[in-house]
Design brief:
The structure is a homodimer of 141-residue chains. Chain A is mainly alpha-helical and 141 residues long. Chain A has one domain: Arc Repressor Mutant, subunit A, CATH 1.10.10.10. Chain A is built from 6 helices and 2 strands. Chain A has helices at residues 8-41, 46-53, 57-69, 85-108, 112-122, 128-139; strands at residues 73-75, 81-83. Chain A has a two-stranded antiparallel ribbon. The longest helix of chain A has 34 residues, at 8-41. The first copy, chain A, is globular and about 55 Å long. At the A-B interface, helix 1, helix 2, helix 4, helix 5 and helix 6 of A face helix 1, helix 2, helix 4, helix 5 and helix 6 of B. The complex binds manganese (II) ion (4 copies). The structure holds a DNA duplex (30 and 30 nucleotides).
DNA sequence: TATATTTTATAGCACAGGCTATAATAAGAA
DNA sequence: TTCTTATTATAGCCTGTGCTATAAAATATA
């Protein structure tokens, strides 16, 4: 395949954008999970968040502190975690993006389980243009 | 879409795997870039690596130190950076995976430029199964 | 109510990956 | 060869994300 290279500037921009997306990736996962737990269990407890994220409890507590600091969630000591309007909006977007991505991957031939697992990492790096193309790809039977 | 949820264990596994991939993502990018610069310019200098990665020079120096520590590259003070056999092998794999991913994205309708930029982040989270499905998708005209 | 258990918070540590400022070295020019 | 410039290394800082150990609070049980 004789591919033309991107300019050094565009290449650096690609890395730069990936770094920025990376910085919000964890917050997106937590927010999505909090919405999910609230929906399933009626509330999102720190212990459940930690378990489902596969991290130690203090790690989850610290991440929640960051969510609060960034205005995505609220909580009082020894109480569950709640999303703000902004957090809920992010959760909705992230959820739909996740589903779209899994749909595309499965349509391409990836198993559901692998698609779900891979999507967990990939989803955070999908641009608006790519998401639009994915939706179109899915709707074109 | 009535999607069935993954079990809590599988979900945690997804996050866990994403974290592991994340940890090697930067190393993959550096290794790929070093191979690219060596190919283009005959050698990979720290200054060029930093510029193309879009980071400050000491940041690149530190990353290179980690590559050396992990047996992926070698270098002597004030000299260029060279890949080990292991590093070169990683570079080859990463390059081909990158190209495959860009190919799939473009086939789905993403522009070349957006595909290249998005791929820079996504590529590191592509599993073997997904990569195989992508190759098949590309070869099936 | 008193005690045991579970849950959450806090303290303290480590490492990766950014940065700026500055020193040291190598390479080029006079 | 000496001096200037460009390159690389080093020091020191910050933030994020992990961990374990332990304290504190809330909840459940006796
Ligand atoms: Mn995710
Ligand atoms: Mn997700
Ligand atoms: Mn990349
Ligand atoms: Mn790449």
């Amino acid at each position: 395949m004789p591919e033309e290279k991107l300019s050094p500037e565009k290449q650096a921009e690609g890395f730069s954008i990936a770094r920025e997306k990376q910085a919000v990736a964890l917050m997106e996962d937590y927010v999505e999970l909090i919405a999910e737990l609230t929906d399933e269990l009626g509330e999102a407890r720190v212990a459940d968040i930690a378990e489902r994220m596969g991290v130690a409890q203090p790690t989850a507590t610290k991440a929640i502190a960051r969510l609060k600091r960034e205005g995505l969630a609220t909580s009082r000591p020894y109480r569950g975690v709640f999303l703000t309007a902004e957090g809920a909006q992010m959760a909705k977007f992230v959820y739909e993006r996740h589903r779209t991505l899994v749909g595309v991957l499965m349509k391409i031939g990836v198993s559901k389980e692998a698609a779900e697992i891979d999507a967990e990492g990939i989803e955070h790096f999908v641009s608006d243009e790519m998401l639009a193309a994915f939706k179109k790809f899915l709707s074109d039977t």
